[in-house]
Structure formats: structure tokens, C-alpha cells
């Protein structure tokens, strides 16, 4: 709805840091399907859930059977397609699957080893299948989330021996793209576990990360080369060999001697954003179609570098995760246009001297319309140009229409405050003591009054008997 009334030529490029978020020392983060929630892994091993509408922490998941000394740092987090599960890879070699609503661990996979990435298969939105990318010893593989009876299907490799790599699913889940530690990007048929095609990334001997665009049409390889390499994706192609096609390289003269550490596409794939691993908080921006470097954005130096870029799924903003554990919110500049509320409003750049006309504010007859000098006439909206608010049409920023049984927000939960509860208990005890003292005082007054009445009645009786005796 917020994008229906925007101009078509609006600039959607990130431009400024509008906010800084901190919920512990953050090590990784991931958006849910519609960007309403943000999951963040921390160095203490917990998973913090942010509500993006209010930018506040709504949940924090941590295992009750682990002490602070036993808890391992979280290296990677990912949401399931329905938003009801979160998978997290830990630095102790374990993988945890969390139920978001129940706030409980569904499964803990031990002896997995260090993982560069772990996520759910796009073909199973319920979160029943995991795609695990080990950092050492073995190639990426697919397995189920249950603990027993699960077969591990290792991704085929174009090399003679299995090579560690980084795996990501295509949007429809039919294919898995694997970038390995020898600078090769491969396409694997997920259903048949068959190698379809492989590409050597120019001047690269290792693929660090693969980033898939929100619309599923573009893939970006972050390697140890001095350029980022982009691919075009067509997961609906009739020939499997045509699914992935090399597109172009993205280079920057300001980072010619540094390797790229992270990159991202915005929600519409219009730009390419990249950060170098050895530089300060600088984000290089390219036009995706032409490969032209548009600008270099400079953020706060206190970040000490950026380790991850996470673009919002439907909005023109992103999270730049700093090496210091803080999250910096990048967004485009929003220009306030007050004429949208009142067409007669005129924005003044400088102070102008206004000379009032003699009859400008005089009362007019009821039938004559009063107009002010310099007033802009109200334009009539052409019904053909008005946005359609009632007919269901696919949105360009919602690249899928399957929203059945998807969790977009968490229910409100009032978290108890121990200090407030202690204060309330003390006040209740004080009120109870006061009430008890009032009851005791009232009882004593009633007994004293009763005794006075009995004494008065006795005196009256005695005087009556004396009178009769006399």
C-alpha cells in the first residue's frame, strides 16, 4: 500500500544511516519472508527477534539446559518459508531448529561441524529439509530436520574429491547453487541430486558467499577476487543447462587491492551493493544491468568494517552488520512533501516579504468563492490514473503469492518485571497490614462500646432497684 502512491521515477538507492540497533553483540541476521521480523544471532548463543514496525526486541531464544559458559556463539540464522521455524548454526558444531511460536528447540543436530551457512530448502516451506554448508572436510549436503532416520545427500562436485562450499537454493527450490573453495559455481538438480553445470569464476580461487536476489533472477558470487561476479538465473528454463548464465563483473577502483567480504541485492534487483573485507564502513553501489559504479556510501567509522549486508525483502532499506556487533540501518532519503496534504501549500527556500492586498482577507458574499493570492488550483484526479485499491493484482515487491499459513508477526506478550512484582507485593503486604490493624481497632472499639453499654445498663438497673427498695 505504501508504494502505490509513489512516483515511478523515485530513487530507491540506499543513501543514509537512519538508525543503529543493538541487542547484544550481533554476529549474523536474517529477515523473515515479508520483512516484518528480523532474527539476529549473538555471540552469547541466543537468538534475538526484532519487530521491524516498532524496531524493538520481542523475543529472545536461549536454551535452558545450557549455562552461559557452555553457550556457543551463533554463526548463521535462517527462517523457514512459513516463518514458523528458525535454524541456527553454532560455533560448537551444533545446528539448532527452533519453533518460533512455542519458543522451544525442535531439534539439535550434533557433530555437524562448523558451518558457513545453514538454511531451509525453498522446496519445503514448512521447514522439513535443511541445506547445510560445512566450512571444512566435506561438501554441502541436504538432510531432514528430525534426529533419526535421516539420509544425508551430499551435493555432487565437479572436482575429484568433495570440496567445502556455500550452498543456496533457487527460488522455486528445484536447483541448488554451490560455490566451492576452488572458485567454481555449480548448479545441482535438487530432486535428482545431479550436477547440471559448473562455471569457473574469473580470477577467483575461492567462493566465500552466494547471494540470491529476492525475485530469484540474479545470483551474486563473493570471492577472493577483486571483483564481484553476477549471474542471471532462470529456474523455469526448459533446459537445465540454461538455468544459470554468467552476466557481468562489478569492480571498483577505490577497492582495487581489497577482497570483497559481503554483498547484497535490494528487493527489486536494481542495484548491487558490496563491502570490502579490509576497509572501513564503506558500501559500493553499482547499477546491476550496466555494471557502472554509481557511488560509495560512507557509514560510521565505529563499525570497524561490515561483515554482512541484509537487504529488506520489500522496502528500500537494509542492515549493515558491523564488526563491533551493532546493526546499522541504511535507507534512502525521504523528502517531506507537504503539498501532498494541501495542494495550496508553497514551500519557501528563503524568507520572502509578503505584502497583503487591500481586499485579500475581506469577507465575500456567500455565492462568491474566496481565493487567496498565489493559491494553487486543486487538480482533478483522472480516474484512469488512480491506483487500484480494490482489485487484487500481484505486487512487484511480492514475488510470490503463496501466503497460506505464514507467520508474519508474533502475538503480544507482557514480560513480567521482577522489580515491579516485588514492589507490588510489598505494597499489597502493607495494605493487608493496614487493613488488619483497622479491623483490630474496629473490633476493640466495638468491644469497648459494648462494655460501656453493659456498664450503663447495670447502673440503671441498680438505681431502679434502690428506688423500689426506698
SSE layout and pairing:
Elements: E1 16-21, E2 26-31, E3 37-42, E4 47-51, E5 56-61, E6 74-79, E7 85-90, E8 95-99, E9 104-109, E10 115-120, E11 129-134, E12 141-144, E13 153-154, E14 165-169, E15 175-180, E16 184-189, E17 194-200, E18 207-212, E19 218-223, E20 228-233, E21 244-250, E22 260-264, E23 271-276, E24 282-287, E25 293-298, E26 306-311, E27 317-322, E28 327-331, H1 418-469
In a few lines, what is going on in this structure?
By secondary structure, the chain is mostly beta strands. The chain has one helix spanning about 420-470; strands at about 15-20, 25-30, 35-40, 45-50, 55-60, 75-80, 85-90, 95-100, 105-110, 115-120, 130-135, 140-145, 155, 165-170, 175-180, 185-190, 195-200, 205-210, 220-225, 230-235, 245-250, 260-265, 270-275, 280-285, 295-300, 305-310, 315-320, 325-330.
Structure description:
There is one protein chain. This protein is mostly beta strands. The chain has a domain at 16-331: YVTN repeat-like/Quinoprotein amine dehydrogenase (Methylamine Dehydrogenase, Chain H). Helix content is 11%, strand content 34%. The protein contains 1 helix and 28 strands. The strands form 7 sheets. Strands 1-28-27-26 form a 4-stranded antiparallel β-sheet, with no helix packed on it. The protein has a 4-stranded antiparallel β-sheet with strand order 2-3-4-5, with no helix packed on it. The radius of gyration is 34 Å and the shape is extended. The model has no long low-confidence stretch (mean pLDDT 85).
Amino acid at each position: 500500500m505504501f508504494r502505490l502512491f509513489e512516483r515511478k521515477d523515485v530513487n530507491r538507492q540506499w543513501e543514509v544511516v537512519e538508525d543503529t540497533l543493538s541487542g547484544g553483540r550481533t554476529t549474523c541476521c536474517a529477515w523473515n519472508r515479508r520483512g516484518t521480523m528480523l532474527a539476529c544471532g549473538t555471540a552469547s548463543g541466543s537468538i534475538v527477534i526484532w519487530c521491524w514496525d516498532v524496531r524493538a526486541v520481542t523475543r529472545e531464544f536461549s536454551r535452558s539446559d545450557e549455562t552461559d559458559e557452555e553457550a556457543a556463539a551463533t554463526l548463521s540464522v535462517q527462517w523457514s518459508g512459513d516463518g514458523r521455524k528458525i535454524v541456527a548454526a553454532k560455533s560448537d558444531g551444533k545446528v539448532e531448529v527452533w519453533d518460533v511460536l512455542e519458543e522451544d528447540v525442535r531439534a539439535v543436530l550434533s557433530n555437524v561441524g562448523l558451518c558457513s551457512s545453514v538454511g531451509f530448502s525453498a522446496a519445503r516451506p514448512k521447514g522439513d529439509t535443511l541445506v547445510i554448508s560445512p566450512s571444512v572436510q566435506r561438501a554441502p549436503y541436504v538432510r531432514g530436520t528430525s534426529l533419526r532416520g535421516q539420509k544425508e545427500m551430499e551435493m555432487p562436485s565437479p572436482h575429484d574429491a568433495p570440496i567445502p562450499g556455500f550452498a543456496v537454493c533457487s527460488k522455486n527450490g528445484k536447483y541448488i547453487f554451490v560455490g566451492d573453495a576452488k572458485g567454481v559455481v555449480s548448479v545441482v538438480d535438487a530432486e535428482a541430486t545431479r550436477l547440471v553445470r559448473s562455471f569457473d569464476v574469473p580470477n577467483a580461487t575461492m567462493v566465500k558467499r552466494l547471494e540470491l536476489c529476492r525475485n530469484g533472477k540474479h545470483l551474486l558470487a563473493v570471492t577472493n577476487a577483486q571483483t564481484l561476479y553476477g549471474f542471471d538465473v532462470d529456474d523455469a528454463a526448459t533446459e537445465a543447462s540454461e538455468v544459470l548464465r554468467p552476466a557481468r563483473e562489478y569492480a571498483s577502483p577505490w577497492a582495487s587491492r581489497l577482497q570483497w567480504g559481503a554483498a547484497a541485492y535490494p528487493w527489486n534487483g536494481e542495484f548491487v551493493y558490496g563491502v570490502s573485507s579490509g576497509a572501513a564502513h564503506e558500501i559500493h553501489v553499482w547499477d546491476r544491468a550496466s555494471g557502472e559504479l554509481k557511488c560509495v556510501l560512507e557509514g560510521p567509522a565505529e563499525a570497524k568494517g561490515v561483515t554482512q549486508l541484509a537487504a529488506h525483502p520489500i522496502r528500500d532499506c537494509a542492515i549493515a552488520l558491523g564488526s563491533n556487533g551493532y546493526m546499522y540501518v541504511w535507507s534512502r532519503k525521504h523528502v517531506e512533501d507537504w503539498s501532498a496534504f494541501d495542494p495550496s501549500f508553497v514551500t519557501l527556500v528563503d524568507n520572502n516579504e509578503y505584502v497583503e492586498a487591500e481586499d485579500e482577507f475581506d469577507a465575500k458574499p456567500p455565492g462568491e468563492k474566496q481565493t487567496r493570492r498565489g493559491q494553487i488550483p486543486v487538480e482533478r484526479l483522472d480516474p484512469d490514473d488512480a491506483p487500484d485499491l480494490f482489485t487484487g493484482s500481484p505486487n512487484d515487491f511480492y514475488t510470490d503469492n503463496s501466503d497460506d499459513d505464514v507467520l508474519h508477526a508474533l502475538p503480544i506478550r507482557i514480560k513480567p518485571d521482577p522489580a515491579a512484582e516485588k514492589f507490588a507485593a510489598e505494597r499489597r503486604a502493607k495494605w493487608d497490614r493496614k487493613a488488619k490493624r483497622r479491623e483490630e481497632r474496629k473490633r476493640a472499639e466495638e468491644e469497648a462500646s459494648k462494655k460501656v453499654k453493659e456498664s450503663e445498663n447495670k447502673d440503671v438497673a441498680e438505681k431502679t432497684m434502690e428506688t423500689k427498695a426506698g
